[in-house]
Amino acid sequence: MPELGRYALFLAGASAFYTAGIGAWNYRAQSARLKESTRGAAVAIALALTFAVLVLEYLMVAGDYQVQAVYNHTDRALPLLFKMGALWGGDAGSVLFWGWILSLYTAFAAWRSWPRENRMTPLAVPILASLLVFFTGMSNLVVNPFRMVPGNPVNGAGLDPLLQNLVMTIHPPAMYIGLIGMAVPAAYLIAALWTRMPSVEWVPVIRRWMLFSWMFLSAAIILGGMWAYMELGWGGYWEWDPVENASLMPWLAATAFLHALQIEERRGMFRWWTALLGISSFLLTLVGTYITRSGVLKNSVHSFTGTGVGPYFVGLFWTAAAGALIVLVLRRDQLRDKMALTTAFSKEGIYLLINMLFASLAAVVLVGTFYPVISKAVLGTTVVLTVHFFNSLSVPIFLVLVLMLGAAPVIGWRAARLRQVVRRLGVPWAVGLAAGVLAYTQGFHTVLQCGGVGVSVFAAASMVQELYRAARARRRSGTPGWMLALYETVNNNRRRYGGYTAHLAFLIIVLGVVGSHTNNLAMTTTLRPGQQIAMRGYRMMYRGLGTSSHGGYQLLDARLDVERGGRVVREDPGLEFFRGSAQPVATVAIDSGVMEDLYLVLEGTPGHQAATIQIFVNPMVSWIWIGMYVLVAGTLLAMGAPPHGDAALVRAWEFTGEDTQRRGRSILAAAHGRSGHD
Q1: Are residues 540 and 651 in the same domain?
Q2: What is the pTM of this model?
Q3: What is the number of domains present in the chain?
Q4: Separation of alpha carbons 462 and 360, rounded Å
Q5: 150/589 Cα distance (integer angstroms)
Q6: pLDDT tens digit string along 226-277?
Q7: Are 131 and 102 in contact (CB under 8 A)?
Q8: Which residues, including other chains, have CB under 8 Å from residue 342's CB and lie 6 or more apart?
Q9: What is the DSSP pairing of strand 553-564 with strand 567-571?
Q10: Does an H or E element contain 563, and which?
Q11: What are the tens digits of pLDDT across the range 578-604?
Q12: Where are the beta strands (DSSP E) in 503-550?
């Protein structure tokens, strides 16, 4: 079987070379035979890599420990689900998995997108195939996943116990789908610039590709926080770890890019900026891969740092950056703005500010993450920036972003009237102020805490108000009933209200983050059997220690009866002792609720059945996980919009006189569920 996997990798590498070379030649020759050959070769890469992945999965499930990737990351006792997830547990499997996901993207573009976008795709596919040359080359020459180990081992080293978690089995594939997907809109953007395609044609295509990748990356980042919360036993979910930052940076750039696309589509402005954001989203995925795989940053809790593929990704980064820069310079005439920004008090100005804030956040995270390397090179000593650095710079920026999200829906294009904006924001401001006051009475006593709640509720109220106004306009136009009016409003403008839903999800997450840092409680206590402890409405009775054997580990747990409001539940925080591991792994017990979690960690056992337990009361953490589901729903709603419907509206709008525009505002509002400012 390993030989079959190696043959599949070789075939994938050869097909990648062929697709990149023949695809580039076909772009010049415009040959129907070469076109079909390129499309077939792109599919062949995906089929070969799919076969290689299935072979490696089979070897892991079957336990062929003569294969190094299997030996390093599985053992006999490992459950089936984690054996399958061990595929991406190390360099060899993760590079193969990366190439496989990219090959699926490339095959889809070649087979399904080529007939629809027959100007960009013939160039985008060879660009993506060039990336596949790198990944298949890595799998064939550097980190061969089918490399054999000497001897005839009968068992493997096993998977890191921290990774034996259901969320961690889901998190990496979601992360890969999101990060690798950033390559596709970047390739299409380069192709659009090179072919001099009008933005009205390429923006809808690139937006859909980016939305898909952005959705998975967003979910993956939150799933990573969920894993840290469930598995690491420190009561938190985000610590500005280098590996966490590695995924956040491309997310920030991609979020800015999605907002910049609206200015490009509507106004044809800030085109250099839009192009740079699109390319940077992909380049930052390579930076993130370098962070996670090079070991250059030692201050990470993630166990898969310190591997040997980092330098190769540095080379790929500079090659991709140089190629993109050449295209941007050669096609700089395509990046001239159609019109200038006449006033900052307009939707264009607000969107530009939002873009700058996201870019500033990405810069803060990038510099802060690499500061240990920078300080070592400049000062001769390694300086690791603390959580305080990231929080003190990022929190104010995030709050201004939230404020802009609330103001943007009511501010018109070209120029806005201050009096009208103030009038339309009156109700949202009143709701936000009331929420801030209510938060103060509930223990949110700092300016940032009360301000965070108030501004978030203001932004949410602003979006809800715009939905209400659009539904009211539809009712006045003859739609019977509010529910039908709301449905038609959202359904006829899924992109707009999908975006609103994603923004509301972001606000839910912000409220969860603010709330989780307010009135949280932490204490450590040692209990003996029969002892009770009461705190913040919880009464806990300690029953004693228990032990049990499981496949691959021994479990020692503390058994507590937790009572609150007449409800009694059994919670068993414990320690898992794995074979070959010197450190036990905490099994966290979480009694999760909408407004707060009771979070229990067994810290140690001093003897005589006593247990030392860390007790946390974490408010509103569940809001972060809820926000993830709402965000995915909003993104799917936006992706379900007709790809060219809004673009046609923009073209008609730009060539319509101002008087006609004003007369048509109410009609457009009723037809598309929009306010008169959009």
Answers
A1: no
A2: 0.90
A3: 4
A4: 25
A5: 42
A6: 999 998 888 899 989 888 899 999 999 999 999 999 999 888 889 999 999 9
A7: yes
A8: 414, 415
A9: antiparallel
A10: strand 553-564
A11: 877 778 888 999 999 899 999 999 998
A12: 521-527, 532-535, 538-550
